[in-house]
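Could you show me just one protein sequence together with its fold in token form as a worked example?
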Amino acid sequence: MELGFPLWVRITHFFNILFLSLLVRSGIEILGGHPMLYFNDDCTPGSEWVRFTRRRMPAGELWTAEDEKEPYSPVVALPGRDNLGLGRYWHFATLMGWILTGLVYVLLMVATPQWRRLVPTSWSIFPDAWHALRIYLELHVPPAGNPFNALQQLTYFLLIFVLSPLQIATGIAMSPSVTARFPWYTRLFGGRQSARSLHFLGLVAYLGFTIHHVALVYDHGFLHELGLIVLGVPDADASQKALALGIAVLAVVFIVAVHIWATRASLRRPRRTQEMLQAVVDPVQRALLQPARSVQAYRPEEITPVPRPNGRPPRDPEYRRLAAAGFRDFRFEVGGLVADELSFSLDELRALDGEAQVTKHVCIQGWTQVVAWRGVPLGVLLDRCRPRPEARYLLFHTFDDKWEEEGEHPYYYTTVDLSLARRPQSILAYEMNGRPLPEAFGGPLRLRLETQLGYKMAKWVRSVELIEDYRAVGQGKGGWREDVLNYSQIAPI
């Protein structure tokens, strides 16, 4: 049976190119948040196996992850210029399109004889592939197959049924909600950072395949191959080859136009772009990842020896006064839509039923570390204050005045769904690795939500207020980073 390229193969091939190119550029934007890769989850400076920045963490001074990021050019990154929030949104939105395209392709392939194009049916494919490789190395073209030679068939099979699922699997392994709910899954890849490194190597493999694939198209006869790829015609005449070339050029122009539009829209109208992508991505996050419950229990010997602080302690006058006195006069306030307003000193918080946990911190920029925490469960505070029926979110206020940021910014705040606040390992931490929480790590109090990325775990917390709708707070996006940096109000991946 002669197997050609039916229309659905050609259409899915086009959308695969479109979505993969968007994934690559948005992936570069995400990599710029922490342009180092590791095979250990401690992310100790100097232990990376590759880095894409010349910046080095100096010894003897407070150096945060914000100082290590690289604002890549919009020419290579989507959208570029240090827009991690929008880069993540583009990555997840186009990932959904890429997966949908792949599912349509595989389902149609299985339902038709087209599966014979890619799925090996004989062990002879291995010696035949080796023979084809030797011919290529001799700079000749091996005999054509039906429609691929053995080496091409084996390569495409591995790309579609091994590399692509591996990319999806390693991407899932980087989700803090998956890490928290299924620690064993991340260990399959050697840890979260190993999964991140494998994900990057998969990207390199895709790029290498693309370059080699295009080179083979030229080697096999560019216009002849275009006739197959674009029109599905095995022996195109001159007019058909011209038509195929014209359609191919238009397809490339369309893809380039999409990239230009996505980049310009993100840089010129970031809020509108955020809302557009958020409507696609956030419902999926809420349905599939946000409900996860953390069951982490790392061993004491797995604790990161030298944990990494992120962010500089506030310069707020009240905070400095309280810190100078060892936070003896500090009061944590609970108010808003509650039956009973509460106020606690640090000693009174410590006297409540506390919980200890050893968990993995996952920063949105990419680095991780394992830390022992102790604090009061948010559920205990909620039981004492008795939220009113209309209360749906916890609004955490902090002393963090964002003094290190350029321009005028309000104090850092974040909002948490009431259901998330009541889950296991959602605590207000006052101890870290057996000692009072240091200022550099958010002391005297910081939020811990072990199924979320680090930006949701506000540091230097001063009070919490129960509210009905976070859209009435700040710019209405649910937090400081959500307002200023276009992050999502939920952060399970």
Remarks:
- The radius of gyration is 26 Å.
- Residues 398 and 462 are 5 Å apart (CA to CA).
